[in-house]
Design a protein that fits this description.
The protein has 500 residues and is mainly alpha-helical. The strands form two sheets. It has a two-stranded antiparallel ribbon. A two-stranded antiparallel ribbon has the order 3-4. It contains 20 helices and four strands. The protein folds into two domains: 427 residues, Growth Hormone, Chain: A, CATH 1.20.1250.20; 54 residues.
Length: 500
């Protein structure tokens, strides 16, 4: 047109807005790549687990903390990072998370003993705050037509990074020195830090107030107490004084935290908003669906690696098992646009129910046929499709029910609830398998019935997620207290991308 503008569907788009749209899409790509990178580091040590006692000069029980400490740190970091994102600006928190990931990877890469390795893995776990803050940021900076797809893709990175990380780490440890996996993570983290600084916009902070430091400390202590008991209960004994003390202290501290949050003028988590039926039920469903997602990640690799002499093991190497699992992560990403279209057509509530239902079908397929690696590939791919569909709907449901100023905090709490589900799943699956051991030609191993029971438990958890989501009330219009997200141009014009 003569004035240099382009009209589409009755609206006028300036060349500046075209550039903003392109910049917004680039920012979406960077944030999603960051989610993939952060998630990737969570599974990098899995192929090393059996060798960690020898490599670090530690007992097997102490070496197990290399995995546990990362899970605990991630659970604590997500709600706190979410609140910091609302208060300080989400791009700043993404930068801090990427810096933590870089530092943690370097410390781990230089480690030859247990203490520095635990410090590095702790920092890597804290970097998981990138996920909920990134999801909330995408709501602000992505073009309207891309928002559902962007959130779906970011949510899918939780599974994609974990699925790709296993074979990648197995290959790296078999080809290079075992420290190579951490230097790979450091390179990815350094690239992420630069990309976030240069390419991700810095919209203004959406909330006023200050960080509730007392609340953050109480939440950290309470969560660590409860999750420590859940994750270590099998090792310590479920009725041992150690386990019971840990869970009782954790629950007591969380109750004190809850009272403190209700009375605080600047709570870390707005429990009144979180108690609203849509938010509460979505978070409870997140526990069930997180449980369902993690169950296959625990059971399927073990079944693939069992010796054929057991009569039902599939005799795959660690690398081969990882490769059989990797397509599941790609399926999650492939179903991100499917989730987006379902949310546009049916809404996030129905989409979450569909995702949890597909997840349950995947477990039932595994229960029915798990006699060949390709059969488990099909089952895990179906389950992964369900996760890819459902995981995107959860934060969308949450963000649609809270004010924009609380978006990152609310998504952080939802991510925490998923983490509770995955941690619980790991404990339950381990307990079921360890309680049904037999001695045979392939050595001591869990029975075939125990593995089949795990698949049924995973299906039951997913179906529970369907039932809980069905109780979430339908919403025909946005609640009055929810502010509309700014357009990409508004968000980008608020503050141009800077390296600060």
């Amino acid at each position: 047109m003569p004035d240099g503008t382009t009209r589409t569907t009755g609206s006028t788009t300036t060349p500046a807005q075209d550039r903003h749209g392109g910049t917004a899409r680039l920012a979406v790509g960077v944030v999603c790549a960051g989610g993939f990178t952060v998630s990737l580091t969570q599974t990098l040590v899995i192929p090393l687990q059996g060798d960690l006692p020898r490599l670090l000069g530690a007992s097997p029980a102490d070496a197990g903390w290399v995995v546990t400490i990362t899970l605990l740190a991630a659970a604590v970091a997500m709600p706190i990072a979410g609140r910091l994102g609302d208060l300080l600006g989400k791009q700043r928190v993404l930068l801090a998370s990427a810096a933590l990931l870089l530092l943690g990877s370097v410390v781990s890469g230089l480690s030859t003993s247990l203490a520095p390795m635990l410090a590095g893995r702790l920092l890597q776990g804290l970097a998981m705050g990138f996920i909920p803050v990134g999801i909330a940021l995408l709501r602000e900076v992505s073009p309207p037509e891309l928002t559902h797809t962007a959130v779906a893709a970011m949510s899918a990175t939780l599974g994609v990074g974990g699925a790709i990380g296993l074979p990648l780490a197995a290959w790296a440890t078999q080809t290079f020195d075992w420290h190579a996996v951490f230097w790979l993570a450091a390179l990815l983290a350094a690239a992420l830090l630069v990309a976030v600084a240069v390419l991700v916009p810095r919209p203004p902070a959406r909330a006023a107030g200050r960080l509730d430091v007392v609340g953050a400390v109480l939440l950290a202590v309470g969560l660590v107490g409860v999750l420590l008991a859940v994750s270590q209960g099998h090792e310590w004994g479920w009725t041992s004084p150690r386990t019971l003390t840990s869970v009782c202290v954790g629950v007591a501290v969380l109750l004190v935290w809850g009272v403190h949050q209700v009375r605080s003028d600047d709570p870390l988590v707005d429990l009144r908003a979180s108690a609203q039926r849509p938010v509460l039920l979505t978070n409870v469903a997140a526990v069930a669906i997180g449980f369902g997602m993690m169950a296959q990640s625990i059971v399927v690799p073990q079944l693939l690696q069992l010796p054929a002499a057991t009569g039902f093991g599939l005799d795959q190497s660690i690398l081969a098992a990882g490769l059989w699992m990797a397509p599941g992560g790609l399926v999650m990403m492939a179903f991100a646009p499917v989730s987006s279209r379902l949310m546009s057509a049916l809404g996030p509530r129905s989409t979450l129910m569909i995702g949890a239902g597909v997840l349950a079908v995947g477990y039932l397929v595994a229960f029915a046929m798990a006699h060949e690696p390709w059969q488990l590939l099909i089952a895990s791919s179906i389950a992964s499709a369900g996760v890819g569909i459902g995981y995107a709907a959860m934060p969308t449901l949450i963000m649609g029910a809270v004010p924009l100023s609380q978006a990152a905090s609310a998504v952080g709490l939802n991510a925490l609830m998923r983490s509770v589900g995955t941690t619980t799943a790991a404990a339950v699956m381990t307990t079921v398998l360890a309680s049904n051991l037999v001695a045979g030609p392939g050595g001591v191993h869990a029975t075939e019935g125990a593995y089949r029971a795990c698949f049924l438990i995973g299906a039951a958890a997913a179906l529970l997620g369907v039932a809980l989501t069905a109780l979430v009330p339908r919403r025909t219009s946005a609640p009055d207290h929810v502010q509309a997200a700014p357009t990409p141009a508004e968000a980008l014009e608020a503050e141009a991308p800077t390296a600060g």
